[in-house]
Design goal:
The chain is mainly α. The chain is built from six helices and no strands. Helix content is 71%, strand content 0%. The protein starts with a helix and ends in a 7-residue tail after the last helix.
């Protein structure tokens, strides 16, 4: 009986860490998306232009209306998905919030990997660093791969 109770407490402790780190990471990222007006420039503008073209049934072309293969398709397709789902009316916010969600999931995955490689404490520390490290928070404002 003691063994099962200890295992249940251990699982609950892990869920608390996963949840806390996910919520902290998401809250910080969403705060910056809502409160920081980050100018879109360079490759970010080009990816967005490409995604708009794709969402509107155009060709997969980077800096061109013609199809090409200058960039790998993952990120432009991610952007085009959000543009086709939410349209242009929401601006970049839906895309940035989608990126915030991915960043928060990444922090939880770091906890899981650290736990598997060493311990829950090591994983929680790694996940917490990913959750609060400013470049990782601010990177979700940019439209970059």
């Amino acid at each position: 009986m003691t063994h099962a109770g200890g295992k249940s407490r251990k699982i609950n402790n892990e869920i608390i860490w996963y949840s806390a780190i996910f919520i902290a990471a998401l809250a910080l990222r969403v705060h910056f998306v809502i409160n920081v007006d980050y100018p879109l420039m360079g490759d970010g503008e080009n990816y967005l232009s490409m995604a708009r073209r794709l969402a509107n049934g155009g060709a997969y072309g980077y800096l061109s209306e013609l199809p090409d293969a200058y960039v790998t398709p993952g990120y432009p397709l991610f952007l085009a998905f959000f543009l086709s789902l939410f349209g242009e009316s929401g601006g970049l916010i839906p895309i940035q919030l989608g990126q915030c969600l991915l960043g928060s999931i990444t922090a939880v995955l770091c906890v899981m990997i650290g736990k598997r490689l060493h311990s829950l404490a090591a994983g929680a520390m790694a996940g917490l660093i990913i959750a609060v490290y400013p470049p990782f928070i601010m990177s979700w404002l940019c439209l970059l791969t």
